[in-house]
Design a protein that fits this description.
With about 200 residues, this protein is mostly helical. It folds into two domains: about 20-110, Rna Polymerase Sigma Factor, Chain: A (Orthogonal Bundle), CATH 1.10.1740.10; about 120-198, Arc Repressor Mutant, subunit A (Orthogonal Bundle), CATH 1.10.10. It contains eight helices and no strands. Helix 7 packs across helix 8. It starts with a helix and ends in a 6-residue tail after the last helix.
């Protein structure tokens, strides 16, 4: 094979989005393994909050990473060094939307089953914490999907406004407003139900 023919092959391989060499493939696989280790918990948590049960959340998490693996090289190239967590959450977001659309039912957050962190301050505080958690979860259910998702991403996953914006496909400004309005609506809901008698 001539030098120009091998260059053409390399260019074609690169244009197809495939690794150019075995070493690059190994490096790409290692980078994906690291991405998986770093974000498995966040993706699973997001899926669980959206789907409501562990089994389906595990399946959706697996589908998210399978889809991410198929497009990882391109995403890595196009990310310009930005974190890929919002990209992963966006994949999970789309898969969760498909999950709910396919089942023709409203998404439910199974957060009411999440146990609050127990502190050694007595049973009364534990009961109050559980009750408050139920109130917050019920309040979340009253929010629109985008508001509920923004709050889950912000407070459960600890994502920044910029990461949430990328995950939801919104501008930073629109995301900041969305989160502010979501918090305000949730607080008003809790206040109206008497959930602020601390």
């Amino acid at each position: 094979m001539t030098e120009s023919a091998s260059e053409t092959t390399a260019e074609a391989t690169e244009a197809n989005g495939k690794p150019q060499s075995a070493a690059e493939k190994v490096a790409l696989d290692r980078a994906f393994e690291q991405l998986y280790r770093d974000h498995l918990r966040d993706v699973y948590s997001y899926c669980y909050y959206r789907i409501g049960n562990h089994h389906d959340a595990e399946d959706l998490t697996e589908q998210t990473f399978l889809q991410a693996y198929r497009h990882f090289e391109r995403a890595q190239r196009e990310s310009d060094g930005r974190p890929l967590r919002p990209w992963l959450i966006r994949i999970a977001h789309n898969l969760a939307a498909n999950y709910h659309r396919d089942r023709s039912r409203k998404p439910t957050a199974a957060l009411e089953h999440v146990e609050p962190v127990q502190h050694p301050h007595g049973t009364e505080r534990v009961v109050e914490g559980r009750e408050r958690m139920r109130e917050v979860m019920a309040g979340l259910e009253t929010l629109s999907d985008d508001r509920r998702e923004a709050l889950i991403m912000r407070f459960s996953l600890g994502m920044s406004n910029r990461e949430i914006a990328r995950a939801l496909g919104k501008t930073d400004g629109a995301t900041k407003v969305l989160i502010h309005r979501s918090i305000k609506q949730l607080q008003e809901q809790l206040d109206a139900e008497g959930g602020d008698d601390d």
